[in-house]
Each structure stands twice: as structure tokens, then as C-alpha cells.
Write a structure and sequence with these properties.
The complex is a heterotrimer of chains A (306), B (308) and C (515). By secondary structure, chain A is mostly helical. Chain A has 15 helices and no strands. Chain B has 308 residues and is mainly α. Chain B has a two-stranded antiparallel sheet. The two termini of chain B are 23 Å apart. Chain C has two domains: 171 residues, Periplasmic binding protein-like II (D-Maltodextrin-Binding Protein, domain 2, 3-Layer(aba) Sandwich), CATH 3.40.190; 223 residues, Periplasmic binding protein-like II (D-Maltodextrin-Binding Protein, domain 2, 3-Layer(aba) Sandwich), CATH 3.40.190.10. The radius of gyration of chain C is 25 Å and the shape is globular. By secondary structure, chain C is an alpha+beta fold. In chain C, the strands form five sheets. Chain C has a five-stranded mixed beta sheet with strand order 2-1-3-13-6. A four-stranded mixed beta sheet of chain C has the order 8-11-7-12. The chains are: A mainly alpha (306), B mainly alpha (308), C alpha+beta (515). Chains A and B meet through helix 1, helix 4, helix 5, helix 6 and helix 8 of A and helix 2, helix 5, helix 6, helix 7 and helix 8 of B.
Chain lengths: 306, 308, 515
């Protein structure tokens, strides 16, 4: 970053073409390799969801579906209402939770990154401590049910995941890149704290907020744990919990299959599991490109200065 | 006490809006995390269902004993730490490299597609990854042996070779999280004032100089935060990952058992709530000690980079 | 730094005060129902039976079962409630804990303080340990008073098995199951070969597997998956030994033929080496995959990928009814068949139940009345199930309906077989009854239940070691000699001797009580 001697710049320019060519070649090649590694299992997944159970059992998975069968999807959409309702629950908790969570996290991250705020380290520790110690499943469960009355309430799916301390601290690292001078000068101009935060700091945090918002949304979308513990009514099951049920059922049954007297039948088939995985991930993948546009270089602090 | 109170009131007067902005977070963290934390005492209790967490009798450190009987405690603690360090290094490094490549590339369509595609593994749950791993590596019908034998080689039975599994697990971990983690670094890089890059371009800095002198310093706070956050979880294993990939295969346990899988296996048949609380407390306590040390060290070097 | 600690301690004390406030309230609500005396770790006091059942007030009872709720369950519930309302002035809500959740949710059920009345339990859900830890209501007086028919119909053994620390804690099933174990195998696969059809011992099984391997190379002849092999237990049982815990996957055995049996483990048994040699050979022959312990598919025999699974009689019946196109057969290898403990399936009354009397009355009705039993187990005749001439049931639409998951309600008298249950199933059961009547070598140990509460640490460690070192060894994956030595070393370090001493004491006491 420091000023460089003109000589060096020239040298740099000379090397520029060959060295950057090498860089780009490596970059493209390794990204392509990575992308292929990431995409193959997903293709296998899609292919398996369209393959008949018999074929998978005897021949395994393949990139292109052989012995095509729509049985798995027919099975899932036998009661389409259940699936659509589960989509509804998942979308609701994801949207509400992400928006609220993002607001709380950004606000708090801003405060604990303000160097003139005396308690910022104490507060950070107070928050961070909860990631180290937790009450464990039993007492958390009793407490949520007996004192907060969260059994079978959608709030049990929204509140526990809303304020994530890991995201808070990642957000703080983003906030710290906002120049302090900017805030100082706004203060001198007579702007109030709330105005500084909402009108000056927030616009600079677009990419950070996109990241944390994405993470929150993924967290909510993928959460089955709270639903497992607190939800009793089938109409309030989020999509991911339905998938969890399907995936874990086989294992739970396999574990107890050796005990006598319990008829072990109706195990979900592999293609059903794969189809369910496709159905649960589909919509959230479509969200990603919308988030992406906030990651494009070009935010200039100058543009918001006025 | 009164001095503290005075100081507090002074600070409150000065920064009242900032205090108010933290109220929602404080409310959430107290109600949903601190209040149920009383359950920690379960680790020191002989839990009875009819007496509840508070009514059950104390039993000292009895619940912790099984972790260390037959010397397993040390092995699984060591395994958990090593896996976490290995995973931390590989997955963060990979994410950083990917983030830099993606932000440096100008071909927009390619950039967007790769960025989306490397996120895909995140969505494939470990249960399904586990099925694929078995389909890929098993001795009789696995894809890997299929390739080896079709080239005239001798099939390998990886499921009896504990030594290779740390690498396999580490690779899958990096693979699963690379997209997710790289988003953080991409965000950090794109959050950089673009004027800085423009200025560098005018100065004629080479691509390596740009990365070395602009990009890396800019993502440094984020990298350090990420590392510290991972260090704070160093005693916690990703149960699903280990369990779904290794399953009940005892031959691999010495190389692949982490605290979480060991506890799961030991308590499967007697569901002792006190013992599982004890394991969790042990993990928490060690994490607490380690992060306090690391954080203090970091604080001495540069206060801005410390977690708290 | 010091100030940070001070403020931390301050915050902590503040929270503790709030919490102990909450906490004492929690424990009082939890103990209210079980009388206030329960403060020691002794069993809680016996709820008194006040004589006649009072049905003047209408109540709603709640029952928990473990299984996935069938989509069309509403019809079944409605029908049950119609009968219950009329006969006992109550209704029943059945809550289903899905298969995927039960390991977490089942123990939580009893710790949450939630008020409910009945729940399914069984030895595989750690009935004994839960009872010792005060999860269930003491039924000493309630059971005979409010479920008199049920109580009278229970065998002496069942009543004994329902006893933990001298008190009744559950109502066991009245359906007899047997310790018979052996291959569930397909006979259709070897049609047209010169197979002699004999299946009486492990040599016959090996011959059969050899033929399958030859004729059907695409199959995995022997069904082994991640839950481990059950051949070790079956091998020892076939020689007349018994497992200390009465079920498979055990590491301590004894010989019931001896007057004062002594517990032994694998490395002390002369029969281990021949067994391991056999398994090494089977592994070599490729009867099962070299990585079977990582394979999670538990349905290989059921779905035609494997030809044999070593398992129990019920599995044979289950497979036969779901895949009628496969010709399954069954052979028992166990030398001394006995009844399985009736607590394998049982019903418990929760500590938090407000109406244990009515709950037991409902249970009495279900387990003694044909109409009620059918409504509870199978649903509405003509809608959810149909009966054939022999009285066997068929679920009309398996996607909509299923039999009840309260398996412990079944009794020898009322239980119906599913349509398609092979005749061999009934024949074998009769045969086992005859065998038990003639030979009580194992049967006299049927009520022996181990109590691990004093050795939980060592027992957990031994189980873990057993899985880690024995499972691969018994499948021939590790070398028999070095593997067995390593297993011994690890078991001893895990505290096997302490476990053995404790359990031997219990066994000796049991034997003494027999005489």
C-alpha cells in the first residue's frame, strides 16, 4: 500500500502480463476443478432421486439416471398440502427470523466495535460466553416449555436462532473496516447516533449484511433441531424437519431393528431420501444469486460521504 | 460498587443511544441462553426424573469418570483437537484462496456460476454424504476400487485402514464448508473501498502486489476473527460428520473417535443425562481455558484483533 | 481483568438467584404428584389406591407411543374415543414420537414435568434404568386395584419382571415372545439346485451361503450392516449359553446348565476360537462386505439384496408378510429356548399423571375386551383393516393407516396375526411352548435382569470397548489372535472385572432365590 518507487512499478509492468497470466490460469483451473468436485455429488443426488430403488440397490449411484422412475416424487407429492404447508412454515420463520436477527446483530456489532464505548469488551465477552457454555438439552427444554411456554409455538423456531454470537463477531469484523473518521465527522456535523448508524454505517455494510443475512437465512432454513424438540403439530413442521425425519428414520430403525417384537417395515427408500433433499434445498439455492449482487466490487465510501 | 455505578451512569449519559441499541441483543441472550444455563449443574448431579435438575442429589465428579476410564479421555480429547486444527487450517485456507480467485476474476458469468456451485456441498446433509462415501469407498462395489481394478490394480479396503481417514474426513469437511466460508472472505474483500484498488491500478501494482498489500491486510481482521471463533470450539467435534462417515466401524475408531462420538456410543444404551452433561461441561471448560489464553495473547499483540 | 471477573461473578450470582427461584418451583411441581416424601434417592412413595374407580368426572388421558403417526390416524382415534366415552367416561389422546426423535425425546418426556398419563416402554428403552431414576409411577397398589383383570392374567414371571427395587413400575405385555434366534433365509433362491434344504446348524448355514454365493454372485449372501453382527450371540446360544443381559450384543455369558453358573466373556471361552475361525473363513469367502459395519442399509434381506439374516421369529413373520413373493423360511439355532422377558414391551404410568386410576382402567379394558382391543390395535374394521376367515388382519391402505405402536397392549389371547403370516410361525411358537414346558434350563433364568446402576461408568466403558474391538474381530476383519488379545487388554482396562463382580453377585443372589 505504501508508495512505491517508480522503478519498481515499471518492473511490475514488465512482469505483469506473464505473471498475471499465470495467476489467472491457476485461478481458472482450480476454480473449475473445485466447481466440478462440488457439483458431482449434487448431480448424483438429482440422478438418484429419479432412479428406481431396485437399480440403486444393485448397481449404486450414477451420474445419469438409469431405469428412470418418478416414484419418489409421486410419493412426496401424494399429499401436496403437507409439503406446501411445510414450505410456508419454513419461509415464514426464515424471513421473519432473518430480518429481525440481521437488525439486532448489526446494531449490536456496531456498538461493540465502537472504540469510544467503554463496555464493548465486557459486552463481547458476555455474549461470547454463551457459545462456550450452555445449559444442555434437558434444562433448556424444560425451561423453554415450562417457563417460556414455547411448546408447539413457532416462536420456538424463531427466537433461539435469532441472535447468533458467531455472526455477531463476524459482523463486528466487517464493521471495523468502516473508517472511524467517517463517524467522527458525522458527529461533528451534528448527526445523532441513530442517524449515523442507519444512514451512514448501514449502507457501507451491504456486503457484510448480505453475508450474515444469508447465513441467518440458511440457519433458519436448515434448522430441524428446534422443530424436533418443540413442535408437536404436523401442520407446524418446517420442511427441513420433515426431511430430517425421513433421513433419520432409517437409522433409528436400524439401531433398534435387533430388538424383538417390533415390526420394522416401510423404511424410506434411498431415492425418496434424495428426492426429499432436492425438494428441501431447491428454493434456498435460488435465493443465492439475489444475495450475490451485494458481493460485487464497487462500493465506494466516497459515494456515501455526502 | 458505587464507583462502578458512577462510572456506569457517566457512560450511560454519554452513550445512551448505544446502550439502547444493545437492549434487544441483551434480552435475547439473557432469556434464551443465560437463564437455561443453570442446567450446567446437571453435570454434577445424580439425576432423577422425579426430583428434577435442582432436586437431584449432588454426586461430585462421578459423572466425569467414564470419560477417563481406560485412558480413552486423553485419546478422544487429542483426536478432537487435532481434527479441529487440521480442519481449521484446510477449510479456512481453501476458503481464502477461493475468495481471492473469485474476486480477482473479471469474467462475470464464470464468477457467478462458480460462486453458486461451490456452495452446493453445504446443502448436502452428512447423512447423504455418508451414503455416497460408502458407495464410493467400499471394497466390493465401490467406485474407487472399480477404477483401480479396471486399470489392473488391486482393490484396497479403506475401511480397514484407519490412517487414511483423517485425510478423507478433512477433505470432506473442507469441501462442505468451502463455499460457505468463502462468502465471508468475499464479503470482506468487496467491502474494501474500491478507491484503494483504483489507486493501486494507477500506480501499476502487479496482481500479486495487489493481493499482498491490499487484499490480505483488508481481510486480516476477518481471518483472525474466524480463527479465534474456531479455536473457541476446538473441543467440539462435528458429530454428524464423524458419525455419518465412520458409522459403527470400530476398526477406524482409534483414528476417528472424537469426544462427541465416544459419548454418543457410550451412552446410547443407558441414556444417563448426567454423564452426557458432564461430557459437555468438560468440552466447555477446556474451550473456555484455551480461548482465554489465546485471546489474552492476541490482545497483547494487537488489542483490535481480540475477541473480547 | 480483575474487574471483568468481578462483574462476571456478579452477573452469575444474580442469575443463580433468579434460577434457584425457578428451580425450586420446578422440582415442587414435579414431585407434587408423587407425594412429597420423595427427597432421597430411594423410590418414591406408593400412591394409594382408594378403592372403587370413580368415573363421574370426564377426563382426557394422554398416551405417548414411539412411531410415526399414520396419516389417517384421526379415524382410529375417533373410534377409540367413542368406546371409551361410553364405557369409562374418558377420552384418549395418543401422541406419537417419530422414530427419528425418540433417542432425544423419550428421556426428555419424563424430565419435562409435562402432565401425561401413559407411555410405551420396553427393555430397549432402558426401562429398568429409567424406573430406578424415578421416571415412572409406582404401581404397587394401583395396578391390582384398577386393572384387576390385567393383573390377574399376568404370569408370575411377568409380575416379577415388572418389579424394580421391590416395586411394580410397569404393566408388561401379555404376548409371549421367545428367545429363539437363527437364520431367516430364502428358499426360492436355490430352486432347481441340488441343495438338500437342511438348516439346523452353522455348517448347514455355511453350505447354504456357499450355494448362494455361487448361484447369485450379485447378492450379499449374509445380511450384516452397521448395527453389528448377531452371529456371536447366536453361536454361543446354540451351544446352550445365555447372555447376562438376556439380549444380543452382550459381552458376559453364563452356562444355565451349571448349578452355580459363573459369568465369562469371549476370551475366556473355549468356543471363541472355533467361532472366530469360522467367521474368518466366511469373511474370506465374501459372504458379507468387508466394510459392512459402515453400511447403514438395514433392509437388505427384506428387499432381496441378501439371502439370510440371523434374527428372531417376529422378523421372519414380518418379512414374510411384506414380501410374499420371496419364500422365506426360518430355523432356530438356540439350544434352550425360553420366554423373553415380558418387559420387552410394557406400559408405564407417568409420574405426572393426574388420573392414573382411569388410565389403568383403560388399560384393563384394552387388554381384556375384544372390541376395545381391535379398535385400539387395528382401528375401524372395514375402513382401516379387514379380517379374513382365520381372523388375520390386513391394513387396507398402509400409507394411511397402521396398527397401533403401543405394542405392549398385545396379549396371547387377543393378538391377531397379519394376513400372509406363514404357518411355520404359529407352529414354531407351539413347539417352543412345548420345549419350554419340557426343559426349564433357560426358562428359570427368564426373570434375571441385570442392574448396572452401581457400575454405570464401567459398564458404559465396556460397551464402548466391546463395539470398538469385538465387532470387527467377530466379522473376521481383524486377526483372531492379536485381535482377541487386544480386546482382552482393552476390556480389562475398561473395568470388566468390576462389572463381572457386580453382576456375578446379582446372578448368585438370583440362583439362591431360585432354590
Amino acid at each position: 500500500m505504501s508508495k512505491q518507487e517508480p522503478k519498481e512499478i515499471k518492473l511490475g509492468k514488465v512482469r505483469l502480463s506473464s505473471s498475471s497470466k499465470a495467476f489467472y490460469t491457476i485461478a481458472y483451473l482450480s476454480l473449475i476443478l473445485m466447481a466440478v468436485l462440488c457439483v458431482i455429488p449434487f448431480v448424483l443426488l438429482i440422478s438418484a432421486s429419479f432412479t428406481s430403488e431396485e437399480y440403486i440397490r444393485f448397481h449404486g449411484y450414477s451420474i445419469f439416471p438409469k431405469d428412470i422412475s418418478l416414484e419418489a416424487y409421486e410419493m412426496i407429492f401424494k399429499s401436496p398440502l403437507t409439503i406446501f404447508r411445510a414450505y410456508g412454515v419454513s419461509i415464514f420463520i426464515t424471513v421473519v427470523g432473518t430480518l429481525l436477527g440481521l437488525l439486532v446483530i448489526t446494531m449490536t456489532a456496531y456498538v461493540i466495535s465502537r472504540k469510544d464505548f467503554k463496555y464493548r469488551n465486557k459486552l463481547s465477552f458476555f455474549f461470547y460466553f454463551t457459545t462456550l457454555f450452555n445449559g444442555g438439552m434437558v434444562s433448556t427444554y424444560i425451561y423453554y416449555i415450562q417457563y417460556l411456554h414455547l411448546k408447539d409455538s413457532l416462536l420456538a423456531l424463531i427466537f433461539p436462532g435469532m441472535f447468533n454470537v458467531f455472526y455477531l463477531l463476524i459482523m463486528r469484523s466487517f464493521v471495523s473496516s468502516v473508517p472511524t473518521a467517517l463517524i467522527e465527522s458525522a458527529k461533528i456535523d451534528g448527526a445523532g447516533e441513530y442517524r449515523i448508524f442507519f444512514q451512514i454505517v448501514l449502507p457501507l455494510l451491504k456486503s457484510g449484511m448480505a453475508t450474515i443475512g444469508l447465513f441467518l437465512a440458511l440457519g433458519y432454513w436448515n434448522d430441524w433441531y428446534n422443530a424436533m424438540l418443540y413442535m408437536n403439530t404436523e401442520s407446524k413442521y418446517p420442511l427441513q424437519y420433515m426431511m430430517y425425519n425421513l433421513l433419520q428414520k432409517t437409522q433409528a430403525l436400524a439401531q433398534i431393528a435387533s430388538k424383538a417384537g417390533i415390526p420394522v417395515t416401510n423404511m424410506p427408500s434411498s431415492s425418496l431420501k434424495m428426492a426429499m433433499a432436492i425438494i428441501t434445498t431447491g428454493p434456498i439455492i435460488l435465493v443465492y444469486p439475489f444475495v450475490q449482487k451485494y458481493f460485487v466490487k464497487g462500493i465506494t465510501i466516497g459515494s456515501v460521504k455526502g | 460498587m458505587s464507583v462502578h455505578l458512577k462510572n456506569f451512569l457517566k457512560e450511560w449519559k454519554k452513550n445512551r443511544p448505544l446502550f439502547i441499541m444493545t437492549i434487544p441483543a441483551l434480552f435475547l441472550i439473557i432469556v434464551f441462553a443465560y437463564l437455561p444455563m443453570s442446567g450446567l449443574i446437571l453435570a454434577f448431579k445424580n439425576y432423577r426424573y422425579d426430583l428434577g435438575v435442582f432436586g437431584s442429589a449432588w454426586n461430585g465428579l462421578e459423572n466425569f469418570r467414564y470419560l477417563f476410564s481406560s485412558g480413552t479421555g486423553w485419546l478422544i480429547t487429542k483426536n478432537t483437537c487435532l481434527y479441529n486444527i487440521l480442519n481449521l487450517l484446510t477449510s479456512q485456507l481453501l476458503a481464502i484462496v477461493i475468495a481471492i480467485f473469485i474476486t480477482e476474476i473479471n469474467q462475470k458469468v464464470f464468477k457467478k456460476i462458480t460462486q453458486s456451485v461451490i456452495f452446493l456441498p453445504y446443502f448436502i446433509s452428512w447423512v447423504i454424504v455418508g451414503t455416497f462415501v460408502y458407495a464410493f469407498f467400499n471394497y466390493e462395489t465401490g467406485f474407487l476400487n472399480h477404477i483401480i481394478t479396471s486399470f489392473g490394480g488391486e482393490g484396497v479396503n479403506l475401511y480397514s485402514m484407519p490412517g487414511v481417514w483423517p485425510y478423507i474426513i478433512c477433505a470432506f469437511n473442507a469441501w462442505k464448508w468451502c463455499g460457505y466460508n468463502s462468502v465471508i472472505y468475499i464479503a470482506a474483500i468487496t467491502g474494501v473501498d474500491s478507491e484503494t484498488y483504483e489507486a493501486a491500478a494507477i500506480d501499476g501494482a502487479s496482481i500479486f502486489q495487489r493481493i499482498r498489500y491490499i487484499t490480505i491486510p483488508c481481510i486480516k481482521p476477518t481471518v483472525i476473527t474466524m480463527i479465534l471463533l474456531q479455536v473457541g470450539r476446538i473441543l467440539r467435534g462435528d458429530f454428524e460428520m464423524f458419525y455419518q462417515i465412520i458409522g459403527n466401524n470400530g476398526q477406524l475408531f482409534n483414528a476417528t473417535d472424537v469426544i462427541d462420538t465416544y459419548v454418543f456410543r457410550s451412552l446410547l444404551q443407558n441414556s444417563n443425562l448426567g454423564m452426557s452433561a458432564a461430557a459437555s461441561f468438560y468440552q466447555s471448560l477446556l474451550c473456555f481455558i484455551i480461548i482465554m489464553i489465546v485471546n489474552t495473547v492476541v490482545k497483547h499483540i494487537d488489542e483490535d484483533y481480540a475477541l473480547f | 481483568m480483575r474487574r471483568k471477573v468481578v462483574s462476571l461473578i456478579l452477573a452469575a450470582t444474580m442469575l443463580t438467584t433468579i434460577l434457584t427461584g425457578c428451580g425450586s418451583k420446578a422440582s415442587t411441581t414435579a414431585t407434587d404428584n408423587t407425594n412429597e416424601t420423595a427427597t432421597s434417592s430411594e423410590a418414591s412413595a406408593t400412591p394409594k389406591a382408594s378403592g372403587e374407580l370413580d368415573t363421574s368426572e370426564e377426563v382426557n388421558l394422554t398416551m405417548y407411543v414411539i412411531s410415526d403417526r399414520p396419516a389417517g390416524q384421526d379415524v382410529v382415534d375417533e373410534n377409540i374415543n367413542k368406546i371409551l366415552k361410553e364405557k369409562l367416561n374418558c377420552t384418549l389422546t395418543i401422541n406419537w414420537i417419530p422414530w427419528s426423535d425418540y433417542p432425544n425425546k423419550y428421556p426428555l418426556l419424563f424430565s419435562s414435568g409435562e402432565a401425561f398419563d401413559m407411555a410405551y416402554t420396553g427393555s430397549w428403552l432402558n426401562f429398568t434404568s429409567l424406573a430406578q431414576k424415578g421416571a415412572f409411577m409406582n404401581l404397587d397398589e394401583l395396578w391390582p386395584a384398577y386393572a384387576p383383570k390385567n393383573f390377574a392374567a399376568q404370569s408370575e414371571a411377568a409380575q416379577q419382571q415388572a418389579t424394580v427395587d421391590g416395586h411394580y413400575y410397569c404393566v408388561p405385555t401379555m404376548l409371549a415372545t421367545y428367545s429363539a434366534y437363527g437364520p431367516v433365509y430364502r428358499t426360492d433362491l436355490l430352486d432347481g439346485t441340488n441343495w438338500d434344504g437342511k438348516m439346523e446348524n452353522f455348517e448347514d448355514l455355511e453350505k447354504y451361503l456357499d450355494l448362494i454365493k455361487e448361484k447369485h454372485p450379485e447378492m450379499e449372501p449374509l445380511d450384516i450392516y452397521s448395527a453389528g453382527s448377531e452371529l456371536d450371540d447366536n453361536y454361543l446360544w446354540s451351544l446352550g449359553y445365555m447372555s447376562s443381559k438376556g439380549a444380543n450384543n452382550d459381552f458376559l455369558f453364563f452356562n444355565p446348565e451349571e448349578a452355580n453358573p459363573k459369568l465369562f466373556t469371549f476370551y475366556e471361552c473355549k468356543d471363541t476360537t472355533p467361532f472366530l475361525d469360522m467367521m474368518a473363513r466366511w469373511n474370506e469367502k465374501g459372504f458379507y462386505p468387508k466394510s459392512a459395519l459402515s453400511d447403514t442399509d438395514a433392509t437388505k434381506t427384506q428387499n432381496g439384496k441378501s439371502a439370510v439374516r440371523v434374527h428372531n421369529l417376529d422378523t421372519f413373520a414380518g418379512y414374510s408378510t411384506t414380501h410374499r413373493e420371496f419364500a422365506y423360511s426360518y430355523a432356530n439355532f438356540v439350544k434352550h429356548v425360553r420366554h423373553f422377558p415380558y418387559t420387552q414391551d410394557a406400559m408405564v404410568i407417568s409420574n405426572t399423571s393426574q388420573n392414573p386410576e382411569r388410565a389403568l382402567a383403560v388399560w384393563d379394558l384394552i387388554t381384556s375386551d375384544r372390541e376395545m382391543f381391535d379398535a385400539f390395535m387395528y382401528g375401524v374394521e372395514g375402513t382401516t383393516y379387514t379380517l379374513n376367515e382365520e381372523g388375520q388382519y390386513l391394513i387396507t391402505d398402509p400409507d394411511q393407516y397402521a396398527g397401533s405402536a403401543m405394542w405392549s397392549a398385545r396379549t396371547n389371547e387377543l393378538n391377531r396375526d397379519a394376513v400372509g403370516t406363514p404357518e411355520l410361525f404359529g407352529e414354531m411358537k407351539q413347539e417352543f411352548e412345548k420345549a419350554i414346558a419340557a426343559d426349564d434350563t433357560a426358562e428359570k433364568y427368564a426373570s434375571f435382569v441385570i442392574d448396572t446402576s452401581n457400575i454405570e461408568t464401567e459398564y458404559a466403558a465396556c460397551q464402548s470397548v466391546h463395539q470398538q474391538y469385538w465387532w470387527p474381530l467377530e466379522l473376521g476383519y481383524t486377526d483372531a489372535k492379536t485381535g482377541l488379545a487386544e480386546y482382552q487388554k482393552q476390556m480389562e482396562a475398561a473395568g470388566l472385572e468390576k462389572v463381572r463382580t457386580e453382576l456375578q453377585g446379582q446372578l448368585d443372589a438370583y440362583v439362591a432365590a431360585l432354590q
